[in-house]
Amino acid sequence: MENKKRIKLGLIGLGTVGSGVYKTLKDNPSVEIIKIAVKNINKPRNIDGLDTSLLTDNPYDVVNSDADIVVELIGGIEPAFDLIKTAIANGKHIVTANKELLAKCGEELFNFAEAHNKVVLYEAAVAGGIPIIMPIKTILAGNRINHIEAILNGTTNYILTKMDADGASYEDVLKEAQELGYAETNPTGDVEGFDAAYKITTLSTLAFRKRIKIDKVYREGITKVRAEDMQIANELGYKIKLIALAQLDDNGKADVRVHPMLVSKESTLSHIDYVKNAVSLKGHPVGHITLSGPGAGEFPTASSVVGDILAIVTEWGTTDYLLPMMRCTHSETAEVIDILDTENKYYLSINATNKMGVIGIIGKVCEENNISVACILQRGLKDNNTADITVITEVCRERDIRNAIEKFNNSECINKVNSVIRVQND
Questions:
Q1: What is the pTM of this model?
Q2: Running DSSP on this structure, what letter comes out for residue 333?
Q3: Which of 199, 210, 239, 241 is catalytic?
Q4: Mean pLDDT in order along the chain per 10 residues (426 residues)
Q5: Which class is 7-124+298-326 in CATH?
Q6: Region label for 167, one of left (φ > 0), alpha (ψ between -120 and 50) or beta (otherwise)
Q7: For 342-423, CATH number?
Q8: Is 35 a catalytic residue?
Q9: Which phi and psi (to 5°) does residue 111 adopt?
């Protein structure tokens, strides 16, 4: 039997994930890494047997080489977008882990790839080491998926888990996470929900078979979550998680957002702790399934990248149209529901002066704004003769809850609305 040729790879980026890809593939008989672009050729690297002659500090050396597949692992929009387009124009297939690029430029990128009969695979761009893209495209292809709840960012999940376990403040846990390397020096992309928003944009586009525009995705981070909220949530049977949510209503409109959420302790997602990620899908006929595992890291993410590479390698030379099931076929852009028009349950923490009738005032404001209260709790008094009152609502409109908060903030006996966090619907 004739030996198949070794497929040539070019890597752009040799950081955490790139190193994992190199280590995983360096002895693979099916592929040969021929060029690697890095920022600094002289930087010491924890890679045994690295052939430094492969290194270049010009990424265009990779996309203009004779590589068959280019693997982009540097992130961001530019120069990644131009590098990928140049590689495609030069006849190369693409594997990428670039969630921001896919969320912001996916439509243009996939159309360009299709025009050149090239594939762009991106398993690592949504949930790190958790296989989710290929399962949706293949084994779950016969399903109508209409609901996704996911934990897609390990940094925020670590911070929230530590706050819960230690009773510590957000600021203290963030500092510790930065010292341990779980959070960046500038953590904005993670803690303000950008990273999770990029990922749910791509995931929902894929699952709903309609394009979701990133600028329509509501985003709220974890910076306002307090240790007190964690404690009360626990007492009420919940955990607080940063949830990436995407759902289709009966009219086919999409509701896609990222924000903290009180998740029932009976839910699988409430038990996804520290840097783990999870994706929970509902669809017909499969029902409700959850995939969980490491959402980041050298080898978990490399696992997804290498899986994509080998999917291309396996089909190489067998067809003129590789991996048709993995191609982008979306032609419709989804209508996305404005956050003000969504319906949710809410947790409110309200600080009020200790006066008779305060709870009655809270109830009255809720009634005037079409909000039904499921439970209301007051515990003890603070030294300044104020009390924190906890309210859990029934399902109501976001627009109504915001109107009620404005009324609370203008009330003489209510000092402050400490927290407003959405609650997982049953």
A1: 0.95
A2: B
A3: 199
A4: 76 94 94 96 90 96 98 96 98 97 96 96 94 94 96 96 96 92 90 98 96 97 96 96 97 97 97 95 96 89 96 94 88 94 97 89 95 90 87 97 95 92 92
A5: alpha beta
A6: left
A7: 3.30.70.260
A8: no
A9: -65, -40
